[in-house]
Amino acid sequence: MASRSTKTDVLGSGSVNYGHGSIMRGGLASKPALDNGPANATRGLMVGGEPGKRTGVSSSSDPEELKKMGNDNYRKGHFAEALSLYDKAIAISPGNAAYHFNRAAALMGLKRLVEAARECEEAIRLDPGYVRAHHRLGSLLLSLGQTENARKHICFPGHQPDPLEVQKLQSVEKHLSKAEALLKLYQLDDAISALLNIPKYASATSSRSQSKIFGMLFEAYPYFVRTQIELAWGRFDSALTAIEKAGEVDPRNVEISILLNNVRLVGRARARGNDLFKSERFTEACSAYGEGLRLDPSNSVLYCNRAACWFKLGQWQWSVDDCNQALRIQPNYTKALLRRAASNSKVELVSLIAYFKMRDIFALEVRFEF
């Protein structure tokens, strides 16, 4: 090794901080630990070449020798060369889980986190009880925002989880739970703030653009959430703008594509209902607003607009019911409050008229009994 150190630094046991490095005694803490197989190699190991220089590509047909050469390159920060050597070892012995585990480390060094996660999955497929691979995969999945899957591997049954990784996982889950609770209360700005403040636990080699949350690119998710709230509040243009931005960030996401289509369909239903209402075709307008509500049952404006149709048709109790739905979503919706009051007054008037009619009929019946 380089002359700056005469001591040999031993690779960590792999029991802590996978994905963020566990090399002990001052050795490049940002690198994840390698699997050294039967012989726990030291940083002083040299296979070919001079200290400090890249180990050249070998024609060796011994996969263990190739792995050791890959480890040597990896420790020097020569990740591409290490990856090439691990590839050669895997080509000779594809069923060796440790080779895939080390290949994942090289991929992490090259900032190819998604590929690294897949390589860990392959190591686990070959050796389901490979604890270090489970822990590293959990760390990678947490970096990529896949908290549910991360928990399965960080808290691998029958083995003590890394406390630091558990702490990170719990922190992310706490922020997600807070965001979900705020969304249910329709507190848009606070929910978005909670999402944006989710701690980013990607390794030093991670890029934000790779991170995902609920299967969606992280930066697209706030737009996705904002779309649903804007739509619920009846701000159709803002909803369309938000979902189009989400689509620009994550154009291949199916959920975003479906919501974009729904926003457009709901907007058309609202516009058609408005046109029919202006033409005093209230029954048809009710149907148009109902079609929009079928696609988006949390849209306060569509409920309020349909309530106006029911009012015009003399269906005042139905108007009250739709106003109540609108106010459940948006409690301070002034138009819905006024419309409900007007509808209630009609319902009460009808009830009062019915009462007087029944009283007169009863009085008449009593008179005839005598």
UniProtKB/TrEMBL annotation:
Keyword presence, Ribosomal protein: no
Domain of life: Eukaryota
UniProt key word Chaperone: no
Residues in TPR repeats: 63-96
Keywords: TPR repeat
Region Disordered, residue ranges: 1-20, 27-66
Pfam family, one: TPR_16
GO cellular component: cytoplasm
Record protein name field: TPR repeat-containing thioredoxin TTL1
Lineage: Eukaryota, Viridiplantae, Streptophyta, Embryophyta, Tracheophyta
